[in-house]
Design goal:
Blueprint: E1 3-5, H1 7-14, H2 21-30, E2 35-38, H3 42-53, H4 55-66, E3 71-73, H5 77-89, H6 95-107, E4 111-113, H7 117-122, E5 132-134
Parallel strand pairs: 1-2, 1-4, 2-3, 4-5
Helix pairs in contact: 1-2, 1-3, 3-4, 5-6
Length: about 140
């Protein structure tokens, strides 16, 4: 089963000095399925990589996408609509996080790999009582 990942997980994986790096890396090494990245996190990840690590990190990320190291999930029309609904329901939930939730609901995924416990723990998804947040 694919593991839906949020921005923080991809950044932590790339940046060894990040507080989540070891935990994320250990968890992902034990996860057998593919990593599924919502298309909406890609610009956010690229920005963080460039501005916190450097252009070489952003370029490496682009190459990893080209090589298929991450599966990219695009949003459907219903996902865009659901993203807006979620943002209206949860004022602290921003656009990117709401789109992650919309995709998780559509794909009926119970887990989200994220470093953002605060926002994702508030959400009550349509298909389960709450998400399991990993690592």
């Amino acid at each position: 089963m694919p593991l839906l990942v949020d921005t923080g997980v991809i950044f932590a994986l790339a940046y060894r000095k990040d507080a989540w790096h070891t935990r994320v890396r250990s968890y992902l090494e034990s996860h057998a399925g593919p990593l599924l990245a919502p298309a909406t996190i890609l610009p956010e990840v690229a920005y963080l990589l460039r501005h916190r690590i450097g252009p070489h990190a952003e370029r490496a990320f682009a190459m990893s996408l080209a090589e298929g190291e991450l599966a990219v999930e695009h949003l459907t029309h219903k996902d865009w609509k659901r993203t807006g609904q979620l943002m209206g329901t949860y004022e602290t939930l921003g656009f990117v996080d709401a789109s992650v939730v919309a995709i998780a609901e559509r794909l009926r995924l119970n887990s989200i790999a994220t470093t953002d416990r605060r926002d994702f723990s508030l959400v009550r998804p349509s298909h389960v009582e709450r998400f399991t947040l990993v690592p």
